[in-house]
Amino acid sequence: TATGGRYDLIVIGGGPGGYVAAIRAAQLGLKVACVEKRSTLGGTCLNIGCIPSKALLDSSELYHLAHHRFQRHGIKFANVELDLGAMMGRKDEVVTQLTRGIEGLFKKNKVAWLHGFGRLASPTTVAVKAADGVETFHEAGHILLATGSEPTELPFLKFDGHTVVSSTEALAFDRVPDHLVIVGGGYIGLELGSVWKRLGSKVTVLEFLPRIVPFADHEIADHLLRSLKKLGLEFHLETKVTGALISNGANANGSGVPPAAVVLAESKSGEKLEFPCDKVLVSVGRRPYLDGLGLAEIGVEYDPKSGKVKTDSHFRTNIPTISALGDLIDGPMLAHKAEEEGVAFAELLAGKPGHINYDTIPAVIYTWPEMASVGINEQQARERGYDLAIGKFPFTANGRAKAMDETEGLVKIIADAKTDRVLGVHIIGPRASDMIAEAVAVMEFGGTAEDIARTCHAHPTLSEAFKEAALAVDRRAIHI
Ligand code: FAD
């Protein structure tokens, strides 16, 4: 053991929550260190989450377009070939550039990176165990827990890193699986399913619930389901996975190469189903990563069932010198939510009025078309008893979408009929991920559908569909 430094703030975890909090606190004049056990900063998001998945989604979409859509634009190829190694290499390069970028930002802002595994040794001490096993003890005025989350395992379908895998391995397959079975119809499964389907796999999604992405607006989620089916993904809803026979190709069945796995499931009516495949992606959710953090020893309260660390509205745990944020606490497990919390936490710690509005956190699924939403959906608005005015506008009637040959989807605005205030916006369509930002800004300002309707939008752009949907709230859309 050795004695380390003394800091105003020590952050454990260098993901979007932790690194943003560290940088903002340093900007505000605090002496800050961040403990990260990985060899790169950026957490799940940059290393094995948001960024590599989007890199593969973009690459695989281009491959898909080259195969199926470029001809419509009058672009012909003699041959379209996949170089999976090069595609993965580009993804890795993007990740490396961005994680190095965070390292640069740490240097610029004088945030010390303590390499190693962090553990609470006291309410104001963090023990950091380096790769060589040596532990150093660092003192802090305040400690921020930002250790993120890990994939949830199914007890009857445990990860083996090869055949039964989590998103981490599914972002780095070295060949295109013949048949990928995905357990769980949430956004991670649907995004990775899209990637491998576009690259040539047969993809089957097994979902226990009657709907995919059950928290989304039903109309928009139904549209997404249709669109993914059109891409060729196969869905079995209300289907319970019960286990799998894993042979990894060892028990030849006399019909050529045996499947590496047979996923066993049961339909709602009790019918037994079998899905022979070569990879199984289990994407049924994520849970807070608390291993070895020393919460129980120090007495930091957390929910033993969900693993979520208990915090108040200022991110404080029951121990006054210890706070927590990001995937570790309540709320959507999203990088931008963690980042907003990081900024708000640092500002509060520095005695400023840090703030986060949980009602205006957008959610995006980066399939193609993309699905993006903010605020409440139609089901929730009806449950809450609002008198609703809903405006919709399809991309088939949008000039730019036509020019792009991307006319799938619609914009749906849900407004309070009494006040016209926007309660939620739900988009499925091209670049919905970028379009939703305008809806977030309007809602953040407490805006109305009329505010959007009276705002000039450049022509021809996809965002005109947003304006037209706002006009449609008052039944005066022009182009439909
Ligand atoms: P993390 O990013 O998980 O970071 C925690 C860090 O802490 C890790 O680097 C870990 O190594 C480190 N750590 C943990 N314990 C210790 C310890 N004891 N000592 C030292 N270091 C430790 N979100 C989006 O908003 N958009 C997306 O498109 C998106 N796509 C995703 C795709 C996939 C495949 C996955 C898995 C996730 C995706 N997410 C996405 C979710 C997003 O990655 C997380 O919400 C986000 O990373 C949470 O940030 P965090 O800072 O709380 O934790």
Automatic annotation (TrEMBL):
Entry binding sites for NAD(+): G184, G185, G186, Y187, I188, G189, L190, E191, E207, G285
Cofactor(s) annotated in UniProt: FAD
Active-site residues per Swiss-Prot or TrEMBL entry: H459
GO MF term (any one): flavin adenine dinucleotide binding
UniProt: FAD binding residues: K54, G118, T147, G148, S149, D327, M333, L334, A335, H336
Enzyme Commission identifier(s): 1.8.1.4
Extra remark: The active site is a redox-active disulfide bond.
Stated name of the protein: Dihydrolipoyl dehydrogenase
Organism taxonomic ancestry: Bacteria, Pseudomonadati, Planctomycetota, Planctomycetia, Isosphaerales
